[in-house]
Amino acid sequence: MAQGPWYFCLKHRTVEDRGGCAERHRLGPFDTREEAADALQTVADRNEQADAADRAWERDGER
């Protein structure tokens, strides 16, 4: 069985090991298959956190 690191392939929407698709098509590396499988949710969560921080910064800067 393959071992990590693990990647999420954006082209095939699957979890891959290091021998998978080209770097430009994937997210990672991740320590576990589970983390790689959750990559899109992780990206969405981080984007929301960054957007919230931007909104707070903009709001605080208007004072």
Secondary structure layout:
Layout lengths: L5 E4 L4 E3 L9 E5 L2 H5 L1 H23 L2
Antiparallel strand pairs: 1-2, 1-3
How would you sum up this structure, described in words?
This protein has 63 residues and is an alpha+beta fold. The protein has one domain. Helices cover 44% and strands 19% of the residues. The protein contains 2 helices and 3 strands, in the order βββαα. The protein has helices at residues 33-37, 39-61, and strands at 6-9, 14-16, 26-30. It has a 3-stranded antiparallel sheet with strand order 2-1-3. A hairpin with a 4-residue loop joins strand 1 and strand 2.
Radius of gyration: 16 Å
Total tally of structural domains: 1
User: What kind of sheet is the major sheet?
Assistant: 3 strands, antiparallel
Structural class: alpha+beta
Counted beta strands: 3
Q: Uncertain regions: pLDDT < 50 for 5+ in a row?
A: none
Main sheet strand line-up = 2-1-3
| Beta-strand proportion | 15-25%
| Tally of DSSP helical segments | 2
Order of helices and strands: EEEHH
Mean pLDDT: 93
Indicate the overall shape. elongated
Distance between the termini: 57 Å
Helix content: 40-55%
In short:
With 63 residues, the chain is of the alpha+beta class. It has helices at residues 33-37, 39-61; strands at 6-9, 14-16, 26-30.
